Amino acid sequence: MSETRCSDDSNRCKVREIKVKKFFFGAAAAAMLAIAPVTPVKAEMSDLEVLFVNVDQDGDLVLNKGEVLLLTIRQFNLSDSDRDNMLEKQEVGDLASDPEFSDNDTNNDGALSIEEVITEKLSDFKSADTNSDGVLTVIEVKKFYEAKQ
Q1: C-alpha separations of 69 from 42, 74, 105, 125 in Å
Q2: Can you list the residues of the chain whose pLDDT is less than 70?
Q3: Is 47-148 a domain of CATH 1.10.238?
Q4: Per-residue pLDDT, 46
Q5: Which of 107, 47, 114 is nearest to 84 (CA)?
């Protein structure tokens, strides 16, 4: 196949031979890919990653403060079953025994207001934002929650 009839310029012959080899190699690779069985790739996402993707409203793969606060307000409203704009211990269940609950209850009334929850989430945001760029990556969020456990 590498028949060389070039006598005038040996470099031109070498270039042509390389081009022919590249063509056949590319064609062989394409044929192998065409007949190779297609196996679907499964990617397992953690609960945290799924939540991250759902909270990322603009799809930029980072969470800004607005997205975090929107989630916070939604979760607060879902948990506030008596709609009194306070999260009492019976509304949060086991979370009420977490020291963070009492730490965030700044007025010591035994319940968390939306303001207290937002203040806590903004503090968490600042702590999780390890590079101080104003947004959270999934890696920063994972590291933050792993450190809290």
Answers
A1: 32, 9, 18, 10
A2: 1-43
A3: yes
A4: 86
A5: 114
